[in-house]
Design goal:
heterodimer, A: mainly alpha, elongated, B: alpha/beta, Rossmann fold, globular
């Protein structure tokens, strides 16, 4: 009998499918390197860009490859304050990823809980939640974030708050539509017939079956959060100058672009591009792999 | 005197749709006594599964129970609040579904599903719960249950999955099990094994069972008593051997004639002409009359439920005894 053959674990099967695309595997490796670089930035960076003792203002705006009087080589040049660009970028990447991932995770938790409740409970609660979702999605992300930050002021916590607020609705909508399909399935009736509690059925039974779209959307949303944060910082409404993210680094160098000091903006810009691009490729591949209609 | 476990009186479950009102169950009455296995037999669409769902309180919109009562050991299930119903489900009344691929959660391991059922009704340590699960899986004929417990449903064969679904239903030693075609999706050999194991377990515990099936042959091996359903009503009821030997309702007679048998080898298999009527457009009078070879003008009137002997009843104007 066919189904007597022991099948492999779902995650292992997903990986076997995933690695069929070499491009996606490369993107995953790039992604992993970027994440590791961000996590270990304090140990990897040749200089601590926040330590004013090691920054020499006279070294400002040096081109890539210049060396300081101390013999220190600025491989990617220095910015307007005389900071080593490579170090500033690693720290900036750390902040960008931290903001993007944390806001994405919290938005997933909020959106998933509300989407599940909407799908499972139904009635006016569902109508209320989904109208709020429609309302949130009716505004352009960047507009909502700009308005919020204009009111709240600068700060990492405020940027994260603004990014959660503009993201949760996407997850609520995706989880609700997945949960509406799942709740029709017989295992939900079976769980009810076993006398399990409503929260148990919602979060213990339906939720794990809705994870595939959440993982895909979550990956994409983290990339989108990183670029939204960069946009906000570029416009001067994001993170404070003391905690420069990639967006802020780009913004700092912008005024020097036309004077030929391209490196202050270009390298953080390329790193941001690579980060967002590789995450999106991974997310796109995950969508192919985890989509039950395409998997075979 | 045997005790009643389940007493259904005049139960009506109705579905309202754009095509009209359909009574999936039409004033259905059925009693199940302690330790008794009742076979509920009917074609698809006759309302036999809906009987199970109605008892479990799982009828969902656009359907609803509009009349009658379901008493479980004297308590009217329709009057209980959701929390009381939840406490009964799984613990005192359990259900087994037709397709174990659908009724087991695909992303949860077998042990998770067994342990959480125990924990929902008893304060029990996980280790103790696992021990009980292993004993029960062994009793259901599952080799090396410790390994099976750590697997996901898709790693198991169909028969294995249904054994596990049955084990989950039996876990809290319920008084009543509603088995909704639990062996229909399985091979005949595995079906026989599972029925045997299930029978042993329920006889040991004195569990009552409502065995829902379209298969008279299966029902007759399992059931003490049979109830034959047609268009949302029970048309004939009585001890299993009696009904099989001397069916009274023309529909039951037709069902019996349509079972392939050695005795009628070489002759064409008889069938009941036509198909089950749409519940939204039931004929007035006897619902079976248009397909019945014994119908008379009297059948345009709704037939009463006739108590023919102390233990047998049929809903027919012309109940007859013939030799099957």
């Amino acid at each position: 009998m066919i189904d007597d053959i022991i099948q492999e674990q779902p995650w292992r099967r997903a990986w076997r499918h995933y690695r069929q695309s070499r491009f996606a595997v490369i993107a995953l490796i790039v992604c992993s390197i970027i994440i590791l670089a961000a996590v270990f930035a304090p140990w990897l960076a040749p200089q601590n860009p926040y330590d004013l003792n090691v920054i020499d203002f006279f070294d400002s705006k040096l081109p890539p490859g210049s060396s300081a009087p101390t013999g220190f080589i600025y491989w990617l040049g220095t910015d307007g304050q005389g900071r080593d660009m490579l170090s500033a970028m690693l720290y900036g990447l750390r902040i960008s990823l931290f903001v993007g991932v944390l806001s994405g995770l919290i938005a997933i938790l909020i959106g998933m809980a509300l989407g599940l409740v909407a799908a499972y409970v139904g009635g006016w609660i569902e109508a209320l939640i989904m109208r709020v979702v429609d309302f949130m999605l009716g505004f352009p992300t960047i507009l909502v974030a700009l308005m919020l930050l204009a009111i709240l002021g600068q700060g990492v916590d405020k940027v994260i708050f603004a990014l959660i607020l503009v993201q949760w609705a996407y997850f609520a909508r995706a989880v609700r539509s997945a949960a509406l399909v799942e709740r029709q399935k017989e295992y939900v009736e079976a769980a009810q017939s076993l006398g399990l509690s409503q929260p148990r059925i919602m979060f213990g039974h339906i939720m794990p079956n809705c994870l595939a779209p959440v993982i895909v959307l979550g990956t994409m949303q983290v990339a989108s959060a990183i670029s939204t944060e960069a946009t906000l910082s570029f416009l001067g409404l994001g993170l404070p100058i003391t905690e420069p993210s990639l967006g802020l680094l780009i913004s700092n160098g912008y005024s020097n672009m036309l004077s030929g000091r391209y490196w202050i903006s270009l390298y953080p810009g390329l790193l941001l591009l690579l980060t967002v691009f590789s995450i999106n490729v991974v997310g796109d591949r995950l969508r192919d792999v985890l989509n039950p209609r395409l998997s075979r | 005197m045997r005790k009643l476990v389940l007493d259904i009186q005049n139960l009506t479950t109705r579905f309202e749709s754009a095509e009209g009102i359909a009574n999936a169950l039409d004033s259905l009455s059925l009693e199940i006594y302690e330790g008794e296995v009742v076979g509920l037999v009917g074609e698809s669409g006759s309302g036999k599964s809906m009987t199970g769902y109605s008892i479990m309180g799982l009828v969902e919109h656009p359907g609803s129970i509009v009349g009658g009562s379901i008493h479980y050991r004297g308590q009217d299930l329709r009057l209980l609040d959701p929390e009381q119903i939840r406490n009964l489900r799984g613990d005192r009344i359990a259900m087994i579904f037709q397709d174990p691929m659908m009724s087991l959660n695909p992303v949860l391991r077998v042990d998770t599903q067994l342990v959480e059922t125990l924990k929902a009704h008893r304060s029990i340590q996980k280790k103790e719960a696992l021990q009980r699960a292993i004993e029960l899986l062994q009793a259901m004929g599952i080799p090396s249950p410790e390994i099976r417990l750590r697997q996901y449903p898709h790693e198991l064969s169909g028969g294995m999955r249904q054994r596990i679904a049955i084990a989950i239903a039996l876990l809290l030693e319920p008084d009543l099990i509603i088995a909704d075609e639990p062996t229909t999706a399985l091979d005949v050999t595995i079906q026989a094994q599972i029925i045997h194991e299930f029978q042993t377990l329920i006889e040991d515990r004195g569990t009552s069972v409502l065995w829902i099936t379209h298969d008279l042959a299966v029902a007759s091996t399992m059931a003490d008593r049979l109830a034959i359903m047609y268009a949302g009503q029970i048309v004939e009821q009585g001890p299993a051997e009696d009904i099989l030997a001397r069916p009274m309702h023309p529909y039951t007679q037709g069902l019996l004639r349509s079972i392939p048998s050695r005795n009628i080898r070489g002759k064409p298999l008889q069938q009941i002409p036509g198909s089950a009527p749409s519940l939204t457009r039931l004929p007035s009078g006897c619902a079976f009359a248009p397909r019945c070879d014994q119908a008379t003008p009297l059948c345009e009137l709704t037939p009463p439920l006739k108590q023919i002997t102390a233990i047998r009843s049929a809903r027919c104007h012309h109940p007859r005894e013939i030799d099957a």
